[in-house]
Structures are given as structure tokens and as C-alpha cells.
Amino acid sequence: MVTLPIPTPTSPPATAKRKTMKALVYLGPGKKALQECPMPELRATTDAIVRVVKTTICGSDLHILKGDVPTCVPGRILGHEGVGTVQEIGTGVTQFKVGDRVVISCISSCGKCENCRKGMYSHCSTGGWILGNEIDGTQAEYVRIPHADTSLYAIPAGADEEALVMLSDILPTGFECGVLNGKVQPGATVAIVGAGPVGLAALLTAQFYSPAQIISIDLDDSRLAVAKRFGATDTINSSDGNAAAKLMALTGDRGVDTAIEAVGVPDTFLLCQDIVAAGGTIANIGVHGVKVDLHLERLWSQNITLTTRLVDTAATPMLLKAVQAKKVDPSQLVTHHFSLAQVEDAYDTFGHAAKTQALKVIIEA
Ligand SMILES: NC(=O)c1ccc[n+]([C@@H]2O[C@H](COP(=O)([O-])OP(=O)(O)OC[C@H]3O[C@@H](n4cnc5c(N)ncnc54)[C@H](O)[C@@H]3O)[C@@H](O)[C@H]2O)c1
Ligand SMILES: [Zn+2]
Ligand SMILES: [Zn+2]
User: Is residue 29 located within the same domain as residue 134?
Assistant: First the structure.
């Protein structure tokens, strides 16, 4: 007779020990609160539960709070950036194990659908920007990450994890939508309109290609001072409405080979059309809420290229290596630190950047 082995009892997963966790919940336009929420649970075999170690706030979170993002409904836990530790994995997860330190991508991707196979992860048929938008996000003690194998990145031992929080969203955004789409070249002339975290991320990563001139344009002198410190060769305060004329004076009346729009308002997109050189590229990054004119009556003959993009985070593995090799230091973007209990203060500080001079705030969960 065959005796079957008596199954040894396994300890329940750590997440089962706790029923609730703290998380920042969107409660409708203008409203949010740190609440006790149910612990996230695995829903698909390809999911992982990650214990959030550090997260941050994005301009898009402020857009949600203004009520600009209809896909994000009240009750949603906010946040789409962060680093953490894998707490639990589904049976289909093969690339990560419990205890691994990971960067959470703002874009979830299956890696298998038609758009993912093209590297266009932002348009994954079962992913894209869903975290902290259509599903619960990272401004919490724990988060469920769908398609974990292709939506998390392993953190190398000894890495600066605070710097890597910038790899969840803003560094790939500035690089992919601004620098790559803008075809920044050695010796080229580049203008970056907007010196917020995204414009500054474009500024840092544009320098991979050694452009001759990088002109940073903003309304805020303190942000322009940061841009100068981060490697801008020239800065222009555009509040007097004369930015185009000043830029033309700086470029021998030629304009720029690449104009990166990193604000998302009509004025700045129009400025890019005024400063792009013949044969140049306008790379739009900004999220636009209202219609903007495209002056084809003037630009039709100028051989220009116009690009738009939602960040794919396809460049994240390369950016991770560049950060590790100290070719770029995104930790310079971090200006403030808070605990999760202080998350409302963190929003106040981030939301009043002109006064607080905040760029990215780190929230330790
Ligand atoms: N395409 C994508 O995938 C993607 C991803 C993330 C963020 N974004 C977008 O990128 C944009 C920038 O993000 P951020 O977090 O750096 O925003 P931010 O609001 O922190 O920074 C914007 C900067 O633009 C400056 N500015 C505002 N109006 C201006 C004007 N008229 N002229 C010149 N400068 C002006 C502000 O002073 C500020 O420094 C936003 O629209 C954001 O939603 C796009
Ligand atoms: Zn974001
Ligand atoms: Zn996909």
C-alpha cells in the first residue's frame, strides 16, 4: 500500500496576518484622506503584492484631485510611483521572489499583447497607466501589482533606492517622450519648456547625447536656477512674453533642433512652434486639458516633426544601469521627506512648489 506523505503545514503568507493597512484614498474632487483600508490580495496568478518602502507624488495625482481624470473614481488609493519589497507572488510570477527589492513602474504591462510586443507598454490592452488610477496605487503600505514579471524591475544590491523612485515615472517620461522622441543629437541645440520634475528629468537625460546648448524656459526663477545647476547652458524666464525673441538671440536666429514641451498648456506648445528650427522636432510631453492651435500655415514648409507620447517605461532597464553607473543622478530631484502619516503635508508641500521650492517629495511608507 502506498502511504501518502502528510502535508506539512505552511505558514500563512505575511499579508494574511494583517487585515488592514494605511493608504491615501481619493474621495472625489478636492478630497483625499489617509484611511485604514483592506490589505490588497492576489487576484491573478501573475500578480505580486509589494510592501511599499518609498513612494512619491506626481503632477498627475494633482490632476486627479482636481477631478481631471474621470477613470479615477472616489475610493481609489492614489500613487503610481515607488520602490518596495516583494511580499507575496502569484503562482505565475517567475522573475521575482518574496523579499526582492523592486522599482514599481507607473505603467503596468503584460508584455504579450500587440502593443506590448511593439514596446508600446503604455497602451497595453490589460495595463497601461492603471496604477493609482483604475486600480489601487502606491501611496499605501502595500500595493497589488498586476503583470508583476513585466511591471517591476529588480533593484541591484547597494543601489540608492531614493534615486530609483524617480525611475517609476519621471525619468523615463523626460527621456522617452522628450529626449528620444525629440531626437536629441551631439552638438544640437535643445530647448526645454518647463523646469518642473519632468522638464528637469529631460534636462538630465538629454545630456547622455552631449547637445551643445540646452536652454531651459520657465516662469519661476528658482526652478530656472535648479535647471542651471542641472546642466542648462542658458535659462529664459518667459513671464514677460518675450521668450521666443530671447531664444532666437541665443541661437543666432536659427531656433532649436529640439523643442521639448514639458508643461501642458497652450502658451508653451505655441512657444515650441515659434522656436523650432527648420528640420527640427517638437516633442510634446505635457498633458493637455484644452485644445491648442497648430500653425501649419507657417510650419508646413519647415520640415518639422511633431511627436506625442504617453511614457512607455521601455527605457527603464537602461536608465537603471545609467543610474548605477553614475551617468545620471536623479536623487538631485528629491527636495523633501515625509512619512506616510504625514502624506497630507507632503501634498501641501508638493502642491505649493512655487512657495516651498519642492521638486519631488519622498514618502516613506
Ligand atoms: N506624457 C507623459 O507620459 C507624461 C508623464 C508624466 C507627466 N506628464 C506631464 O508633463 C508635464 C510636466 O510635469 P511636471 O510634473 O514637471 O509638472 P509641474 O507642474 O511640476 O511643472 C511645470 C513647470 O512649468 C512651468 N510653467 C507653467 N506654465 C508655464 C508657462 N506658461 N511658461 C513656461 N513655464 C511654465 C511651471 O513653473 C513649472 O516649473 C505635466 O503636464 C504632466 O502632466 C506627461
Ligand atoms: Zn506620474
Ligand atoms: Zn500588454
Answer: yes
The structure's pTM equals 0.94
Give the domain CATH number at 210.
Answer: 3.40.50.720
Instruction: Tell me the best of 57, 65, 198 to mutate to test the pocket of ligand 1, counting ligand atoms within 8 Å of each CB and taking the most.
Output: 198
Cα-to-centroid distance, 2 and ligand 2 (Å):
58
Residue ending a domain, choose from 258, 287, 307: 307
Establish whether residue 161 lines the binding site of ligand 1, counting it when its CB lies within 6 angstroms of any ligand atom.
no
Q: Which atom of ligand 1 is nearest to the CA of 122?
A: 3
Domain of residue 300, residue span: 172-307
> Would 54 be classed as within a structural domain?
yes
Ligand 1 site, residue 348, Cβ cutoff 6 A: no
CA–CA dist 113, 126 (Å, integer): 8
If one counts the domains in the chain, the total is: 2
Q: Which of 307, 323, 352 is the last residue of a domain?
A: 307
Q: Is the CB of 285 under 6 A from ligand 1?
A: yes
pLDDT tens for 331-358 read 999 999 999 999 999 999 999 998 999 9
For 235-263, b/e burial (b = at least 16 CB within 10 A) is bbebeeeebbebbeebbeeebbbbbbbbb
- Each residue's pLDDT tens digit, 94-143: 999 999 999 999 999 999 999 999 999 999 999 999 999 999 999 999 99
DSSP 26-46: E-STT-EEEEEEEPP---STT
State whether the beta carbon of 60 lies less than 6 angstroms from ligand 1.
yes
* 165 and 176 co-located in one domain: no
One domain, residues 303 and 220? yes
